[in-house]
Amino acid sequence: MPRRWKRGGMKNSLFKAKKGLSKRVVEQISWHKKESSWMRKLRLKALGIFKTKTVPTWGGDLSQIDFDDIYYYLKPAKQEFDSWDKVPREIKRTYEKLGVPQAERGFLSGVKAQWDSEVVYGSILKKLKRKGVIFLSMEEGVLKYPDLVKEYFGKIIPASDNKFAALNGAVWSGGSFIYVPRGVKVDLPLQAYFRINAQKIGQFERTLIIADEGSFVHYLEGCTSPIYTSNSIHAGVVEIIVKRNARVRYTTIQNWSKNVYNLVTKRARVEEEGIMEWVDFNGGSALTMKYPSVYLVGKKARGEVLSLALAGANQHQDTGGKVLHLASETSSRIVSKSVSFKGGRTSFRGLVKIMGDATNCKTSVVCDALILDNLSRSDTYPLISACGDSNKVEHEAFVSKLSKEQLFYLQSRGFSPADSEVMIINGFIEPIAKEIPFEYAIELNRLIKLEMEGAVG
Amino acid sequence: MDNLIIKKGQTKVIFDNGSLENCTFDVEENAALTYVFILSGGVKRTEILVRLLGKSSSSSVFGIFYGEKKDEFQIVIRTIHKASDSSGQTFVKGILDGESKCIFLGLVDIEKSASGSCDILRQDTLLLSSQSRVESLPHMEIKANNAIAKHSVTSSGLSDEQILYLQMRGIDPKTSRKLMIEGFLLEILNKLPKQLRKNIICPLR
pTM here? Predict the structure, then answer.
């Protein structure tokens, strides 16, 4: 399907590394980013680890990935398409149905020049700067704040964590670097495209967020409109450090085109009385394997994972969450909702572990799934491990179809069958959808309506 | 490995106090299986596979385990629904004391051919000491859409509030603990067939 886009994207890129992964390619990337030797060494080390690691055999089917047939680095051109007319019709149609503002449409399809968003968001950035908040691309972060980056980069998720984290460590480009100083509360959600010189969301983005004591920040990535990419693999790494009393919320709205393998590693380390919240929506991609995790290392820390997955034709959403209770009086909550239709498959994979010496911990895991037709499938694979009489663990899962009674009720009130289905589904996902910023939640509802068209016969 | 077939229309109640280690049950049309097991003392493993092969077949698996000292249990219960309108139920309750450990693996598999099926899996563990440990892996694979499947897993200690409440009513701490443990088990005992209830001597005190 995306052949056309592939060519379109390639033609306009300024520099592209050779296909495949080699020491030379990694060095080239490092050279293009004007990195100093420590980062280059980190990249090469990650490359070595990548070569020794094997592709995971569990979860989704990864056998189709050919690591030698991928461009690992494209220095993006200013625009993906020369004009709005050249944007594929399908994408345009989706934008219109979603009601994405014209300004944003241009940005999303890469038609628009970057400076436009600079003008709009420049004042916000100035305000942040005055507060001492650092909000840069990861590349700029490495160049401007090497000490800070060196201290935390790859510490939460080392390259040896898994094959895709190693891949990211070797060829990463793009992503955000955020530092929020002590006691500063950032009231507006930070978004990748606020950033000056923000390029299109990359395939191997690397994000590092450091929230110092008592601070708060909400980071938002992605958008409800389909993001198409020439590359068939997306392996991002997100590391978050939540210091004492701080709170970080990370919202993802993922809607990659349906040819992408989305293999992301996300992890947060939460210190005493800190709070980490992952809000995760997965609607796109062919296969997503993503389990945002929280390591509760400080007393009274709290972690939350809210995950929402939508799997349509030829899609497999293997999502979930992980929480490790390493300290006493920590609490966590995982809420997962998934909908599969038109032959899609959703899997919930969760892990909650209360370590031996942690006492008075509390955790609850709830996962609900809806299956809309008999081509689709839903699986649940949780692992819950608890130790000691002072900890409280609850897990609950429920899989079902749309209730006929509810559909009938709505229809008897004059709603069409299609509308009633969408209404019930929107109600089903409501507990998570309400956590997503309002304007995106509206788009999300529209997106579901769009994807569901004729899902149930 | 034992293989038992519950023939068409039959109802069978099987009680196992640790003699059957792993067993496969094939349940045919309109047949019903009730399987009750008890695990205690030592390092033990139970593996049960229930295959609901016939239309409207049903199965209930009940389990109670009690571990103390260095006991280690491994419980694997798999229910595979292959025919339509089949229903399954798995209910396991356990108490762990001392340094005992338990790994519980439950799988509910509803195949495409099993539309109209439902299954409920429940496992509760009461941890009485700080060294006891439980690991639960309640898995579900649902391939049919006209199905309902639920599972829930809990683990916790005795609630301090409830013990305090009983003490306020003049019951000493030891008895109140005992009362609460009995209450915990009563939920599953009440569901067992009557003739079996007598057989089960609560390994309390």
Answer: 0.84
